[in-house]
Structures are given as structure tokens and as C-alpha cells.
Model the fold of this input.
Amino acid sequence: MSSQEWVRVRDVMRHEVTEVDGKMDVLSALKIMKKVGATSLIVKRRDERDEHGMLLFSDVAKRVIGKDRAPERVNVHEIMAKPVVTVRPDMNIRYCARLFEIFGISHAPVVENEKIIGIVSYYLLVLGSLPNLD
Done:
């Protein structure tokens, strides 16, 4: 990527956001992930004073599979990340990657006007930084 190019998070983020309730069991959440083709889900706020959470495949691998727990007996709220770091859609993807490194995260909700409008990940940042490969 040349120093003159400026790619925004908005340009690379996943626009389809799927929200689930934290009381849902992990097996049901995994079925939703598979159905929508996502590796992360946003966990809904309980009320207007609450914060969003996020469930990643890696959370399931580490906190359910790795600990030999039954996914139908674990609720999403037990293993999700909350609160989560959010990013602005107009943030430069280089700064977003640096933010991920600083906080040790790999995904973040994209928030505009206090509403989640997308999700960005290292995977999407890398693909967005590459020149057109077609």
C-alpha cells in the first residue's frame, strides 16, 4: 500500500451484523454463525445503560471446546467479551490494525452515531490493504 492511499474501515468492514441475546446457549449461537457465515456475533445490550458484547469462534474454542464443556450448557454471556473496543467507520485501516495490536483484539464493532453498522477484523484489514488482485 502506498503512503498516499487511505483506506477506511468503512471500505473493508463486514456490513452484515448479527446480534444475539447473551442468555442464548453457545450451541444455538454456533448454529446462527454457521447459517449467516460469520465468525463473530454481537451480543445485544440488556438495556440502554449496558454495553454490547462480542462472541468469536476463538472464544468458543478456548472457553468451551478447550475446557471440554458442553456448548448446549454454556450461555453466551459466560464466554463473550464485554465491553468491546469499537472503531469509527472513517478510521484509517492502519490505525485500526495498530489499535488491535495495542488491545490484543482481532475484531471490533464499527460504530457510527451510537449504532453498530459493521464488524472489522484483522482478516478484513489485510484483504483491504492489498492492491486489486483480480
